[in-house]
Amino acid sequence: MNPILLQPRDIAIAAGLIVLDGVLSVALRLRIHRQLAIASIRMVLQLVLIGFVLRFVFALASPVATLGVILLMMAVATREIASRPERRLRRFGNEAVGAIAVVVATGLACLLALTTALRPTPWYDARYAIPLAGIVLGSVLNAASLALDSLLGGVVAERSAIEARLALGAPMRLAMGPLVRVSIRRGLLPIVNQMSAAGIVTLPGIMTGQVLAGLDPLEAAKYQILLMFLLAGASGLAAVGVVLLAARRLTDDRQRLRLDRLRGAGTG
Amino acid sequence: MLPRLRVAGRFDLTVAAGTCVAITGPSGSGKSRLLRLVADLDPQDCGVFLDGVGCAAMPAPEWRRRVAYVAAESAWWAEDVAAHFPDLAPAGRLAAEFGLRPDLMAAPVRHLSSGERQRLALIRALLNRPAVLLLDEPTAALDAATTLRAETVLRRCLAAGTAILLVTHNLDQAARMATRHLVMRDGRLSE
């Protein structure tokens, strides 16, 4: 069975919906139309480009090229995580925190899948490794950016409450605890939503793609289940990672709250 | 005898046990910064000593428990008042001395007036039995009679050997409480 191929006209009709979003943003003063426009143009260019790149890399079948592509994807994800929060840790803190979380979370999830469940030959086959890294990175990006945004925004909003606890002799771990937990939870909400809605509210992307491409629905479902677990694991690692690493940068050896290490924040 | 609190370096300030030093001065002159620095909430560029022991020689939480900073704006991290007090019985007894209704301890923080919050924040700090109290406008939200009640409690702390560094805009309060009165201008202290 062959997939139904799309024509440019089909895509142009769907693009009308993003224009609708823009109109809503202007009408409701959401101030997100600029970001929407940039994001949608980027999305189109990036996807077309990656289509060509993947064709090329699959044909090369070189582990170095595969790793290069994955590292590039990780670098871009890191940049996205770093730039999403309104507040930035000084000295490229957002980037450093994001990079560590991305590499560890994505790396572990992908290696686990490639060496146990999928086992292509060779295990680093670009046709498996790159799409897998891509989908895991998507979840990691989501989890890490939400968690980091929540922490960096929250630490400014709750500065006086945190310092009130410190002033009473609470260790930083305790004073920051509620915020750290809320931030990690925020990072994990998308994957929880994705899992609980999977198959009832939505047919997840991978499964949809595989069914559209002609695979048996049950086989597609099994693939999707495996991926959901991978995504959940990677999201958890990424959210915990960015939050703990960023929280560490917001304090010092005397357990002070160091908002002077944040840019774009009132440092008092 | 060693002073209870000593701030060496650019401030060169000492507060003996059982005494109160009042600091007045225009807003923004650095009074609150001084208190935050002594509480080790901001990085220090001068030595701070409690009974001769340097701040760095003590874990930060222990230092802050003994050198208690009470900010001008009280802050709360839970919904209910009770969640901010590890032990409710002594808190309730102190609350009565500050003229607070006993049922306040069971109320949500958002139902409290600013004066009630200010007194509860002070009680929160007093329950740790600190050796030094760093008070930033502790009675700014209180009426005259309640202010005197609060001062009575603070005077009892002084009698028990606590040292108090009091930032206030209220010159009468400075005169009533302080053994020494300093003025802060542009980050400098003078008599």
Lay out the secondary structure.
The complex is a heterodimer of chains A (268) and B (191).
Chain A: H1 8-27, H2 33-60, H3 63-83, E1 88-89, H4 93-117, H5 126-157, H6 159-167, H7 172-197, H8 205-212, H9 217-249, E2 262-263
Antiparallel strand pairs in A: 1-2
Helix pairs in contact in A: 1-2, 3-4, 3-5, 4-5, 4-9, 5-7, 5-9, 6-7, 7-9, 8-9
Chain B: E1 5-7, E2 13-15, E3 20-24, H1 31-38, E4 48-50, E5 53-54, H2 60-66, E6 67-70, H3 88-97, H4 114-126, E7 132-136, H5 144-159, E8 163-167, H6 171-177, E9 180-185, E10 188-190
Parallel strand pairs in B: 3-8, 3-9, 6-7, 7-8
Antiparallel strand pairs in B: 1-2, 1-4, 4-5, 9-10
Order of helices and strands of chain A: HHHEHHHHHHE
Segments of chain B where pLDDT lies below 50 for 5+ residues? none
Query: How many β-strand runs of chain B?
Result: 10
CATH class of chain B: Alpha Beta
How would you state the average pLDDT of chain A, rounded? 92
- Strand proportion of chain A: under 5%
CATH superfamily of chain B: P-loop containing nucleotide triphosphate hydrolases
Structural class based on helices, strands and sheet pairing of chain B? alpha/beta
Q: Please, could you describe this protein's structure?
A:
The complex is a heterodimer of chains A (268) and B (191). Chain A has 268 residues and is an all-alpha fold. Chain A folds into 2 domains: 1-60, no CATH class; 62-263, no CATH class. In chain A, 75% of the residues lie in helices and 1% in strands. Chain A has a two-stranded antiparallel ribbon. The mean pLDDT of chain A is 92. Chain B has a single domain, classed as P-loop containing nucleotide triphosphate hydrolases (Rossmann fold). Chain B has a 6-stranded mixed β-sheet with strand order 6-7-8-3-9-10, with helices on both faces. Chain B has a 4-stranded antiparallel β-sheet with strand order 2-1-4-5, with no helix packed on it. Chain B has helices spanning 31-38, 60-66, 88-97, 114-126, 144-159, 171-177, and strands at residues 5-7, 13-15, 20-24, 48-50, 53-54, 67-70, 132-136, 163-167, 180-185, 188-190. Chain B starts with a strand and ends with a strand. Chain B is globular, with a radius of gyration of 16 Å. In chain B, strand 7, helix 5 (144-159) and strand 8 form a beta-alpha-beta unit. Chain B is α/β, with parallel strands linked by helices. Chains A and B meet through helix 6 of A and helix 2, strand 6 and helix 4 of B.
